[in-house]
Amino acid sequence: MNDPLDFSGKVVLVTGSSRGIGAEMIQAFGERGARCVVNYVGDAEGQNRRDAENIASKLKEPLVVECDVTQPAQVEAMMKQIADSLGGLDILVNNSGIIRDRTIKKLTLEEFESVVRVNLAGTFNVTQKAGAVLRQGGRIINLSSVSGQMGLFGQANYSSSKAAIIALTKVSAREFARQQITVNAIAPGFIDIGMSKGMPDEVTENFKKQIPLGRLGEAREIVDAALFLASPMASYITGHVLNVNGGYYMA
User: Fold this and answer.
1) Which among 162, 186, 189 has a CA at the least distance from the CA of 240?
2) Mean pLDDT in the chain?
3) Cβ–Cβ < 8 Å for 210, 246
4) Which of 40, 85, 103, 244 is least buried, going by the fewest C-beta atoms within 10 A?
């Protein structure tokens, strides 16, 4: 019996995969046989590149690509590099994102637009340019958030971007369906890695009290959701938002 989580022969791109959940995801796909594309955005200190190379060192024949997802020309160049080096793309996970919390009263337009630009426009840019290299029957998985479903305090920019990603997912699902490409979103709750990790202990404990399962999620639980949506087991699921939040928000 074939293993539905065997991704041998598949090419996978996870944007923002130099650290956090993105790094966990690309490693998980690599462990299951996929050819992996590790993406990072350049920074003055070169830390992102070092992180990406560290992740790549754990993978078999990876492709490491520097690309700012907010820059269409860079995204197009990344897709060309993937096509030239690996022949095409089977699975895209739009994971890149930033967070800059501030109340509406104090939030500047630049702080609002910067988060929307990376989280939403970045997802759009990568999805649009990937259309040229995604193979028939491919998968697109977008990272939304419980914040985009509930509208959390101090996250006018982040919540707006993540809510819009849900709408973009549904439109994309309709438009990519003709190539039998499914498009779905994962909406994580509070996870013990990445953006939730920096919360003060008292804030974390307060949120735990509101989560029916009584704990933060683990990175592997978001990774498992992505593996499922990328697998043949999810071949008839598209335009869906998969909540992985311990019951914090129930649609």
Assistant:
1) 186
2) 96
3) no
4) 103
Which residues are known catalytic residues? 158
Buried b (16+ CB within 10 A) or exposed e, 51-65: bbeebbeebeebbbb
Least confident of 16-20, 96-100, 103-107, 204-208: 204-208
- Into how many domains does the chain fold? 1
Residues in the chain: 251
Query: Is residue 227 included in any domain, yes or no?
Result: yes
Cα–Cα distances in Å, from 116 out to 78, 80, 98, 161? 21, 26, 9, 5
The pLDDT confidence band at residue 251, using thresholds 50, 70 and 90, is confident
Using DSSP's 3-state secondary structure scheme, residue 37 falls into strand
Give the C-alpha separation, 123 to 18, whole Å.
17
**63 pairs with which residues across the strands?**
37
What are the backbone dihedrals phi and psi of residue 93, each rounded to the nearest 5 degrees, phi first? -115, 110
Q: Which two tokens stand for residue 159?
A: 């919540």
Read off the CATH number of the domain in which 35 is found.
Answer: 3.40.50.720
How many Å is the Cα radius of gyration of the chain? 17
- Helices 219-230, 20-31: axis angle to 10 degrees equals 50
What does the pLDDT average to over 83-100?
A: 98
Picking from 182, 186, 168, 164, the residue whose alpha carbon sits closest to that of residue 238 is 182
Pairwise CA distance, residues 242 & 229, whole Å: 9
In the block, which residue shows the tokens 């060192």?
57
* Range(s) of the domain holding residue 193: 11-244
Confidence of residue 196 (pLDDT cuts 50, 70, 90): low
Structure tokens at 32: 């299951």
